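Q: Predict the bound structure with beta-D-ribofuranose.
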Amino acid sequence: MAAKPIIIDCDPGVDDAIALLLAFASPELNLLGITTVAGNVPLSLTAKNARKICELAGRTQIPVYAGCSRPMMRSLTTAEEVHGKTGLEGVDLPEPQMPLQSQHGVDFLIDTLMSSSGEITVATLGPLTNLAIALIKEPRIAAKIPEVVLMGGAISQGNVTASAEFNLYVDPHAAHVMFSSGIKLTMFSLDVTHQVLTTPERLEKIRAIATPVGTAAANLLGHYSSRDAERFEMTGGPLHDPCVIAYLLQPDLFNYRDCYVEIETASELTLGRTVVDLWNSSGRSPNTKVAQTADSERFYQLLTERLAKL
Ligand code: BDR
Ligand code: CA
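A: Predicted complex:
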């Protein structure tokens, strides 16, 4: 079967880095390019971190583009307390040698999608700014994207406020553009990523790979998960962004429900909230495939097997 063409839009970020490694290790995917956005850390660092991860895995031929340096309307909120000052806390990777592409990430998205025949899936692992701006600049890309698979949202508790998950809180207006675009969306919210826990046993299996990539992944996850495990009072830290890539590889790792989803953009109290109409109270046609449950055992088996291939 031909590899599925994808673009990954991300803000590395520890879990973004693990998601990139999972994609690199997966021949089922043809990664056409990586666009980065301001999110977990500022844009200069997300653009650098994406290239550090490419170099760690020897994937220097994958082009990396920097996109938007701030959300559409709000000032940037970052998450150094989760991902560290560099965005990749736990490892000390060398400064990247591979170049950052000169084209803006938004223009790469537009040009690549417009010259496609409508087969390129977009995986978003950070705030949705780049894709929303691309849609505003060139609305015809909507008809070219078969599916956007995104990490974002919270049906129960948020992680940056009680209402909102980080990616959608950072740029709720971009999220609104996406959820009202008519593009087929598949959403991995905290409700499902908090089922995918990096327990000490799972972390040890990754560490036991004992390659440069395996060791770097274990070091990244070690710091990231222990902090979250403590904060959320769980047996391991949740692993968010790799769920998006795992879905592209093995969609039956998760269960889904089609729902109508809207984004709160007006209330300060609930800004960035994904209002998920699980019981179809609105009577509106679903616009999002919402992942609800995960087979976390099989997920970590997949992740560990794939990381061992790099
Ligand atoms: C999301 O926010 C970021 O900190 C993570 O990289 C993930 O994309 C989880 O809320
Ligand atoms: Ca992310």
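A: The first strand starts at residue 4 and ends at 10.
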